[in-house]
């Protein structure tokens, strides 16, 4: 009997993404699966029900129908405990699950003996890149953050030569040079701003410069062994903060992207630094969901402090739901391909990607 894959409409407030697109549904069907999609599941990302039907999916009435008979469920954000209760015992669940963040969710997963794959736990290896949901969604968030900064700024980003005189380009600083930060640098350059990138890891200088940005060197290196940043001493951190505060006085817009998986975001921009910025400056803090890189960030709010606009947007990837869903769904398709073979589920726990992503984790045999 063919494996049944269920996909329901996302229930989290404001979530528009979907875990399977018509494109990936067609490929899942080609793997021998029966795909059940709740009606309207793709509407937030502008994928109509008919497109799913044309791809070979079965449209079902509600979440209970999508989940109830499924051997494997795909999701964007983790279902709540009540929704997990709809899953059949022993089913597999793949998505951004964060079971440790909600005891009720973790208890529900264990009670139903769900084989859970929180993709945020996926090992960061070359082989896993095509399944890396954190990177694909961070790219959309970095792009959108710069557009928000440009919209909030009372200045043009590019240089303009007009009959009324020349407008100098805005100075944009991107804090953090991960996937979101690098996408933000590229987007800022496309909009014509003077872009700088700052990261405690000096080895990312080449990546920043390859995108047309200037690496902001504050004279304090956190280079450590094996490509990882080392902990700065109190004296080094104080000197770094002093130099950064001086530099921010000339910056028109900041996009903060520095994050540490599973931990609160590092505080990089202090209230004193904000007070020293020019009136009309803008801070867009992508790290708002984990507390923010700016001391004054209020998650989910945009407000003005001392003439500086501070935005703490949440779930930015969802604001680009169509392309974000396409990337996310392909990530899931590639991961599911590790264990859905010839219409059946077969887990190979010798595969590091499965063994280290499953929750609770189990060692490879």
Explain what this protein looks like in three dimensions:
It is a single chain. This protein is of the alpha/beta class and 365 residues long. The protein folds into two domains: 166 residues, NAD(P)-binding Rossmann-like Domain (Rossmann fold); 162 residues, NAD(P)-binding Rossmann-like Domain (Rossmann fold), CATH 3.40.50.720. Helices cover 31% and strands 18% of the residues. It has twelve helices and 17 strands. The strands form four sheets. A seven-stranded mixed sheet has the order 11-10-9-12-13-15-14. The chain has a six-stranded parallel sheet with strand order 3-2-1-4-5-6. β12, α10 and β13 form a beta-alpha-beta unit. The chain is elongated. The relative contact order is 0.15. Keywords: NAD, NADP, Nucleotide-binding, Translocase. Belongs to the AlaDH/PNT family. The transhydrogenation between NADH and NADP is coupled to respiration and ATP hydrolysis and functions as a proton pump across the membrane. It catalyses: NAD(+) + NADPH + H(+)(in) = NADH + NADP(+) + H(+)(out). GO terms for molecular function: NADP binding; oxidoreductase activity; proton-translocating NAD(P)+ transhydrogenase activity.
Order of helices and strands: EHEHEHEHEHEHEEEHEHEHEHEEEHEEH
Give unreliable regions as ranges: none
Q: SS-based structural class? A: alpha/beta
CATH C-level class of the largest domain is: Alpha Beta
Radius of gyration: 22 Å
State the total count of DSSP E strands.
Answer: 17
Number of helices: 12
Shape assignment: elongated
| Corresponding CATH architecture of the largest domain | 3-Layer(aba) Sandwich
Query: Looking across the biggest beta sheet, what order are the strands in?
Result: 11-10-9-12-13-15-14
What's the helical proportion of residues? 25-40%
Q: Which whole number gives the mean pLDDT? A: 93
